[in-house]
Design a protein that fits this description.
Number of domains: 1
Radius of gyration: 16 Å
Number of helices: 4
Structural class: alpha/beta
Strand content: 25-35%
Order of helices and strands: HEEEHEEHHEE
Helix content: 25-40%
CATH superfamily: Phosphatidylinositol (PI) phosphodiesterase
CATH class: Alpha Beta
Number of strands: 7
Shape: globular
CATH architecture: Alpha-Beta Barrel
Largest sheet: 7 strands, mixed
Amino acid sequence: MFLQNPNVSSKLQMLPFFKSQSGSIEEQLEAGIRYLDLRVVAIKRHFYWHHGLIGERVECGLNHIYNFAQQNPQEILILGFSDIYEATKDNVIRSCVLNETWESFAEMLIKQLHGNLVPSSVDTNPTIQSVLETGRNIIVFVKGMPFLSPRHKR
């Protein structure tokens, strides 16, 4: 059952029959999936999973990813965000490029995944060993580019 979120227009509401995967993020990770193709939309300063229609808040899924990474430190997870979108006041979904929404998303990723994000100091073509030597195991790409820039290092 899906209840309407008062912060999201009914035009953007997720319906139970609009799912791109049959398993939750947790179930996919437990089944051995290590690359997740994720799409996000910002609506009124909150981020939601997005694939045509709107899903749950991103923070919930990132918590599952973080917990799995903590419990499985030898497993490298790759999160690919094909784009970050935002909903306009007219409920039009558009790409957001290096604006305030993007900065908010970057801050949220750092906060949610904190100590598990592989730093940008790792070689651009890292080996599994070089990633594991960092003690971190989540690699993030946005639009095919590594997520962390030097100013986002922890």
